Amino acid sequence: MGTPANPQKFAVLNAPSRIDGMGAFAAEPIPARRKIGEIRGETISVYEAWERAKKLDRIMIVEVSPRRAIDASNSADPLRFTNHSCCPNAVLRIRQGRVEIYAMRDIDTGDEITCDYGETHHEGQLACRCGAPKCRGNL
């Protein structure tokens, strides 16, 4: 069957983030509206995702449908460390069960790649640390 194609379209490195823990950083310039890459992982039920989330300090789970989720906790994909920002430079899209990340604007080498997580399991109880001028204050 062979090895699946590399879903990363641009070079991304992981490094400590001023937002939270590790982050995903552009290792080369990324033009606006281009696919940066994907986050792959174990396909699980949404119920299993919620159960796992209760036990984790760092949650790397994305719901891709009302019934399915992707747990990227054991993934090697660098974009799994994409942090939240209330003023993101990228957007997460679900396409045919895949978690894809696209640049919203030009991203320079060394910039942290961020997405707006939207609604999360934190239900507004987790303080946001993105530092954006118009930060909502919580996730």
Architecture blueprint of SSEs:
Blueprint (H helix, E strand, L loop, with lengths): L11 E5 L5 E5 L8 E5 L2 E4 H8 L7 E3 L4 E4 L11 E2 L5 E6 L2 E6 L10 E2 L24
Parallel strand pairs: 7-10
Antiparallel strand pairs: 1-2, 3-9, 4-6, 5-6, 8-9
Describe the model:
The protein has a single domain (12-115), classed as Beta-clip-like. 6% of the residues lie in helices and 30% in strands. It is built from 1 helix and 10 strands. It has one helix at 46-53, and strands at residues 12-16, 22-26, 35-39, 42-45, 61-63, 68-71, 83-84, 90-95, 98-103, 114-115. Strands 3-9-8 form a 3-stranded antiparallel beta sheet, with no helix packed on it. The longest helix is centred in the middle third of the chain and has 8 residues, at 46-53.
